[in-house]
Amino acid sequence: MLNFNSIEDRLSADAWSHLGDVLHELYLGGCRLRSLPGRLLDNMRQLRYLHLWNNDITVIPSQFFQVLYCATIVVVFTV
Q1: Which of 18, 34, 39, 60 suits 68 as a labelling partner, its CA being 20 to 30 A distant?
Q2: How many CB atoms lie within 10 A of CB 50?
Q3: Which of 37, 34, 47 lies closest to 15 in space, CA to CA?
Q4: Residue span of the structural domain in which 46 resides
C-alpha cells in the first residue's frame, strides 16, 4: 500500500516487475500521480485490484491494461 506517498512523476515502469507473480492489489491512491508509465503493469500476472483514486492522471497510455493476464481487474479511479 503506497497511498498518500508523493510519488508524482517518479514512478518507474519496472517498479514492481519482480512482484508480478505475487502482487494482487496495488494501492496508489492520493500519490499525486500525473501520468502512468506505459509498461507499469507488464508481468503483473496476479494483479486484480488497482487503486488510482485521488490523483491528477490526465492520460492513460492506450495499451496500459492490455498486458494483464487476468480476465477481470477492478480499477478504482476517481476524478
Answers
A1: 34
A2: 21
A3: 37
A4: 1-79
Distance between CA atoms of residues 6 and 45, nearest Å: 26
State pTM to two decimals.
0.76
- Rounded Cα distance between 27 and 31, Å, is 9
> Quick check: 78 pLDDT over 80?
no
C-alpha cell belonging to residue 59: 492520460
The structural domain count of the chain equals: 1
Q: How many residues does the chain have?
A: 79
Give pLDDT tens digits for 34-46.
Answer: 988 888 888 888 8
Nearest to 6 by CA among 24, 33, 27: 33
Residue 68: CA count within 13 A, CB half-sphere: 18
CA torsion through residues 68, 72, 76, 77, sign? positive
